[in-house]
Design a protein that fits this description.
This protein is mostly helical. It is built from eleven helices and no strands. It is found in: Membrane.
Length: 268
């Protein structure tokens, strides 16, 4: 009789296409690539940002945050596109694909993307802690630590990649969050652009960080027979991390809604 562990090993060989012994090298290379990408975008922001008049009027700490949000936005756009591809376009996670249980599926490309995203979270967390609390409070630290835990477990265990990508897909709202900060820092809180961005952020947050997480939890319930086959670390991570992030997203959602209503009421 084939055990879940045997099936898992066969799936890694079939879908991933690389030996487990090479995982540390692949992880290290991917993470370094992510860190270098963040550093590159940050350096470009430091060169380009002074071309915008509002930037020159900011304090030193605000300029650091302005540039930091540049690579945050770049990561959000890239990882959202990659997540949408793996979840909705590729057949990697489709129920009728002949790759076995969905919780054990991954590929070389999907693992590399996880490593690159891990490099971003390391870079951003390092800056958050170095300039704490200017770039974000404890909720940002918790969010990044949970994300890094999930990414690393999924990478090295080869498990739960589908759920990790579902969570990463929620990063699609980050550009709107950053644009809100940019417009506010530029003194444009009364502008039409600020109001439109607020509405887009509200609906984007509702879809990507509330409804999507509800779907994720329902998916976990429907596929719980597969979830129970996960290794202990991945099993508890899948059961704990999404609900924790979902709770944080709901709290932030009410703040987003409050901010949108406040902005629209001033324009009425």
């Amino acid at each position: 009789m084939m055990t879940p562990q045997t099936l898992h090993s066969q799936l890694l060989s079939l879908v991933s296409g690389y030996p487990r012994a090479e995982q540390p090298t692949l992880w290290f290379s991917s993470v370094i690539l992510g860190i270098l990408a963040c550093k590159t975008v940050y350096n470009v922001m430091k060169v380009v940002s002074p071309l915008f008049p509002p930037y020159t009027r900011l304090s030193k700490s605000q300029k650091i945050e302005w540039d930091n949000r540049g690579f945050s936005t770049a990561h959000a756009i890239a990882i959202s596109a990659a997540s949408a591809y793996f979840v909705f376009i590729s057949d990697l996670f489709k129920d009728d694909a002949p790759y076995g249980p969905i919780v054990f599926r991954n590929s070389v490309s999907s693992q590399v993307v996880l490593g690159i995203s891990g490099g971003y979270f390391i870079s951003d967390l390092a800056m958050i802690l170095w300039f704490y609390p200017n770039l974000g409070g404890k909720e940002y630290v918790i969010h990044h630590l949970l994300s890094m835990l999930s990414l690393n477990l999924s990478f090295f265990n080869g498990e739960g990649s589908f759920y990790v990508y579902m969570v990463l897909l929620s990063e699609v709202t980050t550009p709107f969050v950053n644009m809100r900060w940019y417009l506010s820092s530029a003194g444009m809180k009364k502008s039409k652009a600020y109001a439109i961005n607020g509405v887009l952020l509200f609906f984007g947050w509702m879809i990507a960080r509330v409804l999507l997480f509800m779907y994720l939890i329902i998916h976990l319930y429907v596929h719980f027979d597969q979830v129970r086959q996960l290794s202990k670390g991945s099993y508890y991570c899948v059961l704990i991390v999404p609900p924790c992030l979902a709770s944080m997203n709901i709290v932030w959602f009410f703040k987003v809604a409050k901010g949108m209503l406040k902005t629209l009421s001033k324009r009425a």
